[in-house]
């Protein structure tokens, strides 16, 4: 197999396992990436910002809530969505995060648990990118254990009054609406909090060394008064937000392969052109061992993502399998990024090459939407039948 066939990546000719429609989705996102994203992503990352106008670019391509049906959403397959996530994260994890939070978290919560009025009001505009959403579950003191959340919602006549704070919220400072989860006197409920509601403020989190091409914020709620129709009527308890997180994790297990692919391609190209001791470093055994190991992990991760996508489209996917995919593929991608950095040597730590940017991003991806430790325990319980979280 030639190196060119690897760099186009499809290891083991995985493209043959995609349908014509799935390849068309891939090509459309690659085209957007080449024209609009890749030329600017280094600047966005270095500046620690992302243009809000990207939402409408993603909306025009049908990427926002693309796996949802109706209300202006594209209604595409799980594998279509996975392929799109892969191509976006091949550019930068922050771009895939934007699409994941908008579609898999905020829009999915409204689509799955909202009233018909809420769906009609929010989803069509979110699908076009006119409206940006965020998803408020994680708190300053409660990440892996959301059952301990301190954000509270109390009844006051027909209204609800919310108090609390949410942390590490992607899109928070640019969102037009926040899906906020709060404990009530009986169970956790979801609430739609429009930007500008009195008592609701956001604070962008600065000084990040990872996911810099992404807006991350704190949500602050102080006596935020909402009408009765702001609550999501379709669910109570943590089953609601956790099911949305499972959708986001699905996108991550595909997206991580995109980051890994970029790092692998960069390492192969660099090793072929970097000359030391009179020949390209690709000709040295230690470099070839690194590339071979990276290729194997990348191929296994891509196959795992595709199989999980096929199971999801067939209606046979379990949360435990999503945990397996997220745990394996992010861990493998991070290993590939780190190994690729060693091949690039000192050049690997600059923005001239994408490897360190991807490696830094993947440190966050390893943690969010369930840490590697939590997904390990999910699999441990699935294997043994014994929960070990406490």
**Overall pLDDT level:** 94
Rg, alpha carbons? 21 Å
- Secondary structure: helix percent: 40-55%
* CATH architecture type of the largest domain: Up-down Bundle
Structurally, how many domains make up the residues?
3
What is the name of the CATH topology of the largest domain? Answer: Butyryl-CoA Dehydrogenase, subunit A, domain 3
Low-confidence stretches: 1-9
How many helical stretches?
A: 12
The major sheet is characterized as:
4 strands, antiparallel
* N-to-C CA distance: 49 Å
What proportion of the residues form beta strands (DSSP E)? 15-25%
Number of extended strands: 11
CATH hierarchy, class of the largest domain: Mainly Alpha
User: How do the strands line up in the largest sheet?
Assistant: 4-5-9-8
Content-based structural category: alpha+beta
Give me the strand/helix succession. HHHHEEHHHEEEEEEEHEEHHHH
User: What is the CATH superfamily of the largest domain?
Assistant: Butyryl-CoA Dehydrogenase, subunit A, domain 3
What spatial form do the alpha-carbon principal axes imply? globular
């Amino acid at each position: 197999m030639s190196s060119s066939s690897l760099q186009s990546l499809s290891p083991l000719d995985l493209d043959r396992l995609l349908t014509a429609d799935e390849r068309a989705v891939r090509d459309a996102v690659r085209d957007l990436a080449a024209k609009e994203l890749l030329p600017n992503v280094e600047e966005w990352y270095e500046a620690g910002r992302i243009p809000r106008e990207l939402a409408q670019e993603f909306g025009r391509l049908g990427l926002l809530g693309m796996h949802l049906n109706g209300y202006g959403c594209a209604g595409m397959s799980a594998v279509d969505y996975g392929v799109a996530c892969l191509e976006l994260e091949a550019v930068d994890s922050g771009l895939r995060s934007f699409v994941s939070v908008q579609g898999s978290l905020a829009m999915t919560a409204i689509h799955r648990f909202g009233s018909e009025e809420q769906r009609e009001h929010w989803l069509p505009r979110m699908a076009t990118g006119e409206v940006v959403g965020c998803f408020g579950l994680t708190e300053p003191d409660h990440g892996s254990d959301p059952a301990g959340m301190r954000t509270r919602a109390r009844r006051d006549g027909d209204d609800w009054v919310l108090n609390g704070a949410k942390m590490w919220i992607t899109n928070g400072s640019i969102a037009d609406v926040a899906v906020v989860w709060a404990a009530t006197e009986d169970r956790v409920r979801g609430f739609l909090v429009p930007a500008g509601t009195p008592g609701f403020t956001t604070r962008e989190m600065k000084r990040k060394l990872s996911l810099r091409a992404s807006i991350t914020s704190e949500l602050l709620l102080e006596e935020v008064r909402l009408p009765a129709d702001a609550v999501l009527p379709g669910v109570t308890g943590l089953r609601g937000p956790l099911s949305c997180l499972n959708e986001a994790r699905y996108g991550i297990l595909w997206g991580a392969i995109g980051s890994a692919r970029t790092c692998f391609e960069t390492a192969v190209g660099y090793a072929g052109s970097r000359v030391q001791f009179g020949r390209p470093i690709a000709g040295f055994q230690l470099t070839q061992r690194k590339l071979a190991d990276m290729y194997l992990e990348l191929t296994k991760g891509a196959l795992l993502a595709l199989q999980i996508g096929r199971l999801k489209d067939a209606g046979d996917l379990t949360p435990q399998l999503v945990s397996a995919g997220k745990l394996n593929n992010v861990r493998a991608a991070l290993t590939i990024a780190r190994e690729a950095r060693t091949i690039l040597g000192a050049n690997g730590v600059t923005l001239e090459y994408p490897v360190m940017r991807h490696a830094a991003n993947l440190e966050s991806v390893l943690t969010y939407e369930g840490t590697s430790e939590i997904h390990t325990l999910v699999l441990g319980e699935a294997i043994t039948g014994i929960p070990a979280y406490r």
